[in-house]
Amino acid sequence: MNKEGIVMEIQKDKVGILTCEYEFIYVSYSSFPPSLGSYYTGKIIKKNLFDKLKRLLIIAFMLVFLMVLSIITYYYP
Question: According to the 3-state scheme, what is the secondary structure of the chain?
């Protein structure tokens, strides 16, 4: 799937763009990297399962931490 937007970040194998729907996504570029601030169209780089799992584990850890903290403050004011 192709997306287009303004180039905000350039890495060695991908370009971060800001789309008109205010999404920040990474797309691949062809032979040479575009310049910052230019309008660019490219193919979306999909995130792998590890990135999604890492995000889920961080959210679960934060929820457990907040629950433990609220239990401690409830019993020991």
Answer: CEEEEEEEEECCCCEEEEECCCCEEEEECCCCCCCCCCEEEEEECCCCHHHHHHHHHHHHHHHHHHHHHHHHHHHCC
Could you tell me the pTM of the whole model? Answer: 0.58
Q: Is the pLDDT of residue 32 over 90?
A: no
Q: Are strands 15-19 and 2-10 parallel, antiparallel or unpaired?
A: antiparallel
Q: Is the pLDDT of residue 39 over 80?
A: yes
Domain containing 59 equals 47-77
Which residues have C-beta within 8 Å of that of residue 1, sequence separation ≥ 6? Answer: 43, 44
Number of domains forming the structure of the chain: 2
Q: Which two tokens stand for residue 15?
A: 């370009």
